[in-house]
Amino acid sequence: APVLSARSLVASYGRNPALKGVSLQLGRGEILAVTGPSGSGKSTLLMCLAGVVRPDAGEVFYEERRISMESEAERSRLRRRDFGVLFQFGQLVPELTAIENVALPLLLDGSRRGAAMAAATTWLERFEVVGLARTRPTEMSGGQAQRVAVARAMVTEPQVLFADEPTGALDSLNGEQVMTQMSRVVREAGTSVVLVTHDARVAAYGDREIQLRDGQIDGYDGAVDAAHVV
Ligand code: ADP
Ligand code: ADP
C-alpha cells in the first residue's frame, strides 16, 4: 500500500485554480520527483499533500487516515510527528547555532535537552557538518546551511519528507552535494520523499517523476507501473 496518496485534488486561490484534479501515490521508501514550470502548481500540491492546506475538493490519504478531512490541530500534530518539511532557504533560526537548530524540533516536541543534542549531533554527522555544530547560519555557506536544514528536517525521523526546491538557492556543485547526501540518508532511513523541483538534474535523484502543467499531471517518467497511476 502507498504511504501517501491523493485523489482528484482541486485547489484555488480565489478564482485562480492552481490544481485541477491531481491524483498520485507515493510508495514506501520512494523518492517521487514533482516537476513542471513555474506556476504549474507544484508548491500548492506539496502543501496539500503535507496537510498544510486543505484542498477545495479531492482527498489526501496518509496511511489509513484521510488527512484532507482532519482539523488543523490534528494535521499540525501529524506534521510535527510524521512529516518533515524542507524549503529552498531561510529556514534556519539565525540566532541559534547549527546544533541548536537541529535539536529544536525535538525540544519543541518535549524531548530532554541532552537527548535532543545527542540526536542533533548524530544527524549533523550524517550530513558531514558536525564541525559546524557551534556555528550560526550566517557564518555558513549556502550549501552548509542547507545540509544543516536537511539534518533538522530528518531529526524527528519523519515517515515522509516534503522538499520544495531544496537546491533552489544553491549553485550546481553545492546542489549536487546536498542531493547526493540527502538521497543516501533518506534511503538508509527508509523515508519516503516528495521532491518538488524545476531542475531535471535534481529530479534525476527520484525513483519516479510526475510532471505538472497548468495544475494537471502532464506526464510520467521513470519506473512507472500501473499501480502508481490512479
Ligand atoms: P509552482 O510551485 O509550480 O510554481 P504554485 O503552486 O506556486 O506553482 O502556483 C500555482 C498557481 O497558483 C500559479 O498560478 C500561482 O500564481 C498561483 N498561486 C500560488 N500561490 C498563490 C497565492 N498565495 N495567492 C494567489 N495565487 C497563488
Ligand atoms: P514557487 O515557484 O517556489 O512556488 P513562487 O515565487 O511561485 O515560488 O511563490 C512564492 C510565494 O508567493 C509563495 O508563498 C506563493 O504562495 C506566493 N504566490 C505565488 N503566486 C502568487 C500570486 N499570483 N499571488 C499571490 N501570491 C502568490
UniProtKB/TrEMBL annotation:
<feature type="domain" description="ABC transporter">
    <location>
        <begin position="4"/>
        <end position="230"/>
    </location>
</feature>
<dbReference type="InterPro" id="IPR015854">
    <property type="entry name" value="ABC_transpr_LolD-like"/>
</dbReference>
<dbReference type="GO" id="GO:0005886">
    <property type="term" value="C:plasma membrane"/>
</dbReference>
<dbReference type="InterPro" id="IPR017911">
    <property type="entry name" value="MacB-like_ATP-bd"/>
</dbReference>
<dbReference type="InterPro" id="IPR003439">
    <property type="entry name" value="ABC_transporter-like_ATP-bd"/>
</dbReference>
<dbReference type="GO" id="GO:0022857">
    <property type="term" value="F:transmembrane transporter activity"/>
</dbReference>
<dbReference type="InterPro" id="IPR017871">
    <property type="entry name" value="ABC_transporter-like_CS"/>
</dbReference>
<protein>
    <submittedName>
        <fullName>Putative ABC transport system ATP-binding protein</fullName>
    </submittedName>
</protein>
<dbReference type="InterPro" id="IPR003593">
    <property type="entry name" value="AAA+_ATPase"/>
</dbReference>
<keyword id="KW-0067">ATP-binding</keyword>
<dbReference type="InterPro" id="IPR027417">
    <property type="entry name" value="P-loop_NTPase"/>
</dbReference>
<keyword id="KW-0813">Transport</keyword>
<dbReference type="Pfam" id="PF00005">
    <property type="entry name" value="ABC_tran"/>
</dbReference>
<keyword id="KW-0547">Nucleotide-binding</keyword>
<dbReference type="GO" id="GO:0005524">
    <property type="term" value="F:ATP binding"/>
</dbReference>
<dbReference type="GO" id="GO:0016887">
    <property type="term" value="F:ATP hydrolysis activity"/>
</dbReference>
